[in-house]
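Figure S7 source data.
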Amino acid sequence: AAKRARNGRQHWYAAHLDDEAGERLELIEDLRVALETGQLSLAYQPIVSLPDGRVVAVEALIRWQHPVRGAVSPAAFIPIAEQTGIILEVGAWVLRTACVQAVTWRDTLGAEAPGRVSVNVSARQLAEPGFADLVASVLAWTGLDAHHLVLEVTETAVFGGGQAVRTVQELHELGIKIALDDFGTGHSSLGLLQTVPVDILKVDKSFVETITMAGRHAVIASALIQVSQGLGLSAVAEGVETAEQAAELYRLGYRMAQGFHFGRPAAEPDFTRRMPLAVAGRPQAGRRPDY
Ligand code: C2E
Ligand code: MG
Ligand code: MG
Ligand code: MG
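Tokens for the predicted magnesium ion complex:
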């Protein structure tokens, strides 16, 4: 803040912009190296059935252990990777790695393997006309059935129509399920749900955070589960951190949830070691939902 003082102001902005541009360039350079030298990894977070606590799916989340900066959050590097296009290579790596892991779980855990693996896909990937073919070839190469894969896209990515929507249609025709991530925070248009083949709504954690507070705070979470039910879609509540939130979500009609309360994202082999815990306990009444 001292640097912003009076005469230094103009200079500060220029220097600041340079810093930012330089920082971004460096991050992209480092990301290329990261891809080649194995600094990237995936963490897995369970998505659970509220009626019986079982793991119905697993979301793959990218992690970057930078040799100097330490852990770099995807929220920091994914947007930059998108703008420069390196997300195409990063995304392909994520997809291959997650599909290989899904096949490994099926081989080693059998019936206890998570039913589906959910992979985040960026707008830039959907805009590529060859993306569905790439996904098909990864499935063929790994031997994973299409119905064991879910691809998470954002409302904003498919809002404009065009190639992104065509890509989603192609993916859906392959038998892959489509989840709308962070639902309610983007270009929320309910009309989107009629033009894009969506199977799952992932209700954003901002609507879960306030749910156990007094007042009108559960209104949106409640409205969104009703929309999903009315349209015959599955719904997952994101960012569930407490038992109270889980209970309230269940009361509102939610049957699937994800969040620190059920399990933090964990790398292999920790994730698999914790899996039996996540699925422990005798199934209770209520049909297990389909993610
Ligand atoms: P997202 O897809 O909505 O993923 C959920 C994020 O919420 C993850 O953050 C997860 O760690 C975090 N989370 C899960 N449960 C809780 C909870 O109970 N409370 C709170 N406060 N947070 C929770 P993460 O791993 O830092 O990822 C951030 C975002 O980066 C993701 O949001 C996604 O948009 C993007 N991302 C992550 N991995 C990939 C990837 O492989 N490809 C692409 N394109 N984007 C990715
Ligand atoms: Mg996601
Ligand atoms: Mg999400
Ligand atoms: Mg989110």
